[in-house]
Amino acid sequence: MASRLTEISLDCHDPDLLADFWCGVLGWEVVHREPGLVEISPARVEDQALLDAVRSGPVPPTIFLAKVDEPKVVKNRAHFDVSPVDVPQEEEVERILALGATRADVGQTGEESWTVLADPEGNEFCVLRSLAPGHFSL
């Protein structure tokens, strides 16, 4: 038996702000909220059903957004990659920018197939090529 990836934690100054942003990007929802901590997930699942699913195979991890006082100082050591599923990459980048992202420079050359953005607190992430029909082929 192996362990399962069940949660990803992201330190931030404003968990509510980032929860709104990432829910907008991913089409997820807030499943738990308490002062200084917000959990987001693709869908709310009852505890027993989630436990059964995790025990039987991989499930999408939830994201915990935890309030910290320390500022982000350097490029992230780990980051999210997102893939548009129903629109071209450029259209998805514009949608995410409208949600509050900014363009980020982490040393890319301009030849990359992905676009680097940063969430409202400066955490870098990439928008990969589109998986939409007509934009992706094997």
Automatic annotation (TrEMBL):
Gene3D superfamilies: 2,3-Dihydroxybiphenyl 1,2-Dioxygenase, domain 1
Domain Glyoxalase-like per the UniProt entry, residue ranges: 8-128
Pfam families the record matches: Glyoxalase_6 (PF18029)
Matching PANTHER family: CONSERVED PROTEIN, HYPOTHETICAL FUSION PROTEIN
Protein name (Swiss-Prot/TrEMBL): VOC family protein
Lineage: Bacteria, Bacillati, Actinomycetota, Actinomycetes, Propionibacteriales
